[in-house]
Design goal:
The complex is a heterodimer of chains A (266) and B (119). Chain A has 266 residues and is an alpha+beta fold. Chain A has five helices and ten strands. In chain B, 74% of the residues lie in helices and 0% in strands. Classes of the chains: A alpha+beta (266), B mainly alpha (119).
Chain lengths: 266, 119
């Protein structure tokens, strides 16, 4: 075939292709004004999730909240909401919004099980199973006074209990923290800092009110040793990592750590 | 040479069609990092319904307006009224309509003194 035969075809085809793609991508692209929430920029997407949670807090309609969340996919949405609650509280957003996020996360099942609550008493809290691994040293709170315990604002928190919780039903091994005042009541909005060799994070108590005002948790990643501290307090726990528990039917699974920080009695 | 132009034009047309097919159907533009003002009317209305539901519990009109602001520069009342129209056209429940309408009523009372003061 001579070049004079195919050259116009090729030249026209290439130019037409380029012009078509240019028109379709730049001049008149598809549905720019009909986006769905998944295409939102990350910060807007987080705002959208927060709005879903706030609406749920206002109406209590979990089914509708789930329908709204479905567009984002069900995978890990509860965890995302829980993490967002922590981030928003840390960033100074209204506490009501953080609570709404935490409330929706809890309603979606993003909650640890096996947490012993000694303060407010949570309906449905399951008893702690006996520890089947070698437990870490547990500091038992010492009663130093027979006077009635009273809250001591500003007094530094101390670690009063450290326990491995073996609950095979738990979604993931967690660091579960309870912060209590001198009278044994949970203290909300207390910052807890976790540090590991390649990073750090912080989370706050009170975002899962159904587990107690002083409760907070953090998912433990495998093969990472964490240090936990309460800023402004001498309370420091080091080398905290996943520990195996023995299952009833044999085998093993990773347990969760419970840390209880308390203010000393006056 | 006299045959060049028809062939070229035909090739151009085929290429153009292939380009449009590729750009619109096979590999259309995917928008990421969009803002809420580009949301489809269905999601936009649901966004306003969520703001209304939250407002019903919080009774914080300032915060409701702040939330509505992310939907674009139009006045908040205009956006809420558009949502009511969409809700009526698409058969949303009476409860949802009432929820959105409550916000519209409160926004209207907020904007009416300004309107009265204007010449």
């Amino acid at each position: 075939m001579r070049s004079s035969t195919w050259l116009p075809w090729v030249l026209g085809g290439v130019l037409g292709l380029l012009a078509g793609v240019f028109y379709a991508w730049r001049v008149n692209p598809v549905s720019y004004t009909q986006t769905d929430p998944t295409s939102l920029r990350a910060d807007f997407r987080m705002d959208y999730l927060a709005l879903i949670a706030s609406a749920h807090a206002g109406t209590g309609d979990l089914g509708r909240a789930q329908e709204r969340l479905a567009v984002f996919g069900a995978e890990g949405i509860g965890e995302t909401l829980g993490a967002l609650a922590q981030q928003r509280l840390a960033a100074g957003y209204p506490e009501a919004e953080a609570r709404a996020l935490a409330g929706l996360a809890a309603a979606l099942g993003e909650r640890p099980s096996g947490l012993p609550l000694t303060t407010t008493g949570t309906p449905g809290a399951t008893p702690v199973r006996p520890i089947t691994t070698t437990p870490r040293p547990i500091r038992t709170p010492q009663a130093t006074s027979t006077r009635a315990l009273t809250a001591t604002p500003g007094a530094p928190f101390q670690l009063t209990r450290q326990e491995l919780l073996c609950d095979a039903e738990a979604v993931a091994p967690r660091l579960q923290v309870q912060v209590l005042d001198a009278s044994g009541r949970g203290v909300p909005s207390i910052e807890i800092r976790v540090i590991w060799d390649q990073g750090s994070d912080r989370f706050f108590t009170g975002l899962k009110p159904e587990l107690g005002a002083g409760y907070a948790d953090f998912t433990l990643q495998p093969e990472i040793a964490y240090t936990v501290e309460l800023p402004g307090s001498s309370a420091l726990v080091t080398n905290l990592e996943r520990e195996p528990c023995t299952a009833d039917q044999g085998g093993s699974f990773d347990g969760s750590w419970l840390l209880v920080f308390s203010q000393p009695a006056r | 040479m006299p045959r060049f132009l028809p062939r070229f034009l035909l090739g151009l047309a085929v290429g153009l069609a292939a380009g449009l097919l590729y750009g619109w159907v096979i590999q259309p533009v995917e928008y990421v990092d969009t803002a809420p003002n580009t949301l489809d009317a269905q999601y936009r209305t649901d966004f306003i319904l969520m703001v209304s539901e939250t407002y019903g519990a919080e009774r914080d009109l300032g915060r409701a307006q702040l939330r509505l602001a992310s939907l674009g520069p139009e006045p908040p009342l205009e956006k809420v009224e558009a949502a009511i129209l969409y809700a009526v056209e698409h058969g949303l429940s009476r409860d949802d309509l009432a929820t959105i309408n409550r916000l519209a009523v409160d926004l209207r009372t907020l904007s009416s003194p300004t309107e009265a003061a204007s010449p």
